[in-house]
Amino acid sequence: MKLIACTEGHSSKIEAFSLEMIAAARSLAQAGDEVVAFFAGRDTEGASASFGAADRLIVARATKSDVIPAETYALLLRDVITAESPGLVLVPYSANGLDVAADIAARTGWPLVSYVNEIKRHGESLTIVAQMYGGKILAECEVQLPAILMINPGAFAEAPPGAITAVSVQTIDADPALTSGKVKMVAIDVPDYADVDLTTAERIVCVGRGIGDEASIDLARNLATMLGAEIAGSRPVVDNGWLPKLRQVGKSGQKVKPKLYLALGVSGAPEHLEGMSQADLIIAVNTDPKAPIFNVAHYGATCDLFDLVANLSDRLRAGSGR
Amino acid sequence: MNILVVLRMIPDSAGELQLAEDGRSIDREWLDFQLNDFDDHALEEAILLKEAGGAKVTAVAVGEGANRVLQMAAARGADEVVALQSEEDAMISSREIAASIAAMARAKSADLVLCGVQSSEDVFGQLAPYVGALLDWPHVSGTNRIVANGAVLRVTQERGAGVAVTYELATPAVLGVQTASKAPRYVSGSKLREASKTPIGRATPESSGFERSAEIITLRLPVQGGSGENLGGNAETVADRLVSILAAKGLARN
Ligand SMILES: Cc1cc2nc3c(=O)[nH]c(=O)nc-3n(C[C@H](O)[C@H](O)[C@H](O)COP(=O)(O)OP(=O)(O)OC[C@H]3O[C@@H](n4cnc5c(N)ncnc54)[C@H](O)[C@@H]3O)c2cc1C
């Protein structure tokens, strides 16, 4: 059986989760199976230099465009699926993967399971553990092959990077599909990280929707100042306009690895954890003892965040006055 | 422009979720049902597009409490509201409802279908790409801005780390909305009362047409806590402990 691991990268950077997809495929391959990595983009050299853990690499090479719209990615992938008849296609849960996985599932008619954390293979069927309800429930699913899985970043350890032998690389020209595609990229906006770069911050105080309103952000900001920390927010906080986008941590925000991450009123949805679960010290404050943030926290407290901020601020203030 | 916006009612997962006796679903009896957050943004984006360039907005809702949310949609500016019948007490699977949404999009001659980018019940895939693929219309998910210029759409999508990519595509199209261009508006009680007279249409579901799918065997709660230490629920003692933990790690002071 062939297993296709979908990979991604842009701006001459291969996404780390690409190596995770290859590792996931590798872990399911049995004797005689073949792990085929699929890459669409400009940095085909990067793909060839990194995806050595796969048996074979198919690259759809774009010469001009840095970002391949998911629509085009799915179209190119569909051709590969038709040509290769794989038993399993692994797609990362990324901005691209969100569109690609269900698109190819609809067009092949194959089953799809999303937000996958664990996979076990029993011959021609799989049992899968996937996350639902923001990580509060795990669903054990069964699926017959061929199938498509959308896999959470971080669920599998990266495959070792290394070069793939040139004979195992097959190149497709992606330019015609990009030119004729129905979805055309017209601009990329990269923010000015000079304003704030959370990825280099050593200490972060992150507020979630539990903070309630914009005015209350100041309480957390004062605490952050006392701790010499940057203030950050979960997605709803940023969507509500209470903090600027560059201060968002998570899947569509920044991936951070500070020495201290104090999470106040953050539930710990998988998309949030993706951005911060590697922090050295995670302290979570949330009134809901079942909040998934506690699954990654080194210290957890179930008190009201406002009471905690007040008490902690008092103590830190008193300490600094001494 | 004809816009169809899909509103899914899902259990409020901020509260405690309990498993049903069959072990394959959650106990829905005492749960509050609320509009999927992302669908709320999809509705807002639909109304913003209507305000910007004129459009007819049809809101279709599925799940427990659909009528209530449709009245809210009417109060916010939806022109027509339709409840799509769903099985009672069942999870709403995108894979299952995609064919119904595609059929409605055709029947209403929709130019644009807007769905929330995802719902927390969607373990078998996202709605927008399913509907887009079934209709063979272009689709983009994770959008946070949509601008229409006649039949041409400019759509901005989040790609992570603050990077945003703008695409151009022509209608008819399907978009999965992450965030509306503006935060969803509130509606006054009087508007809601007025909108409560809006007649609610009914639609019957189409068969999904997929021969095979995955199946949920069991649901379970994740093992709690990891290896972390629980400091308890008393803010004063927690604060004391945190001060000493931070001090011990050299993190207490600026
Ligand atoms: C494609 C995609 C990308 C995404 N990207 C991101 C991302 O980059 N970052 C991100 O964060 N999310 C992201 N999300 C959203 C994510 O799924 C969650 O919706 C979000 O993380 C929830 O934010 P929250 O924890 O602040 O809010 P909620 O889930 O509403 O949680 C609020 C928490 O506060 C607690 N609380 C309330 N009041 C108090 C109090 N007084 N004291 C203590 N605790 C209290 C509650 O118990 C609750 O657990 C993304 C989603 C998608 C689909």
In short:
Chain A is an alpha/beta fold and 322 residues long. Helices cover 30% and strands 29% of the residues of chain A.
Give a structural overview:
- The complex is a heterodimer of chains A (322) and B (254).
- Chain A has 322 residues and is of the alpha/beta class.
- Helices cover 30% and strands 29% of the residues of chain A.
- Chain A has helices at 16-28, 44-50, 70-84, 95-108, 175-180, 217-227, 235-239, 270-276, 305-321; strands at 2-7, 9-10, 13-14, 34-41, 56-61, 88-92, 112-122, 125-132, 137-144, 147-151, 169-173, 183-189, 203-207, 230-233, 260-264, 282-285, 299-301.
- A 9-stranded mixed β-sheet of chain A has the order 9-8-7-10-6-1-4-5-11, sandwiched between helices. A 5-stranded parallel β-sheet of chain A has the order 14-13-15-16-17.
- In chain A, β2 (9-10) and β3 form a beta hairpin.
- In chain A, α3 (70-84) crosses α4 and α6 (217-227) runs parallel beside α9 (305-321).
- The model of chain A has no long low-confidence stretch (mean pLDDT 95).
- Chain B has 254 residues and is of the alpha/beta class.
- Helices cover 28% and strands 30% of the residues of chain B.
- Chain B contains 6 helices and 12 strands.
- Chain B is globular.
- Flavin-adenine dinucleotide (FAD) sits between chains A (134, 208-210, 234-236, 248-253, 265-267, 269, 271-272, 275, 285-288, 291, 304-306) and B (14, 117-118, 142).
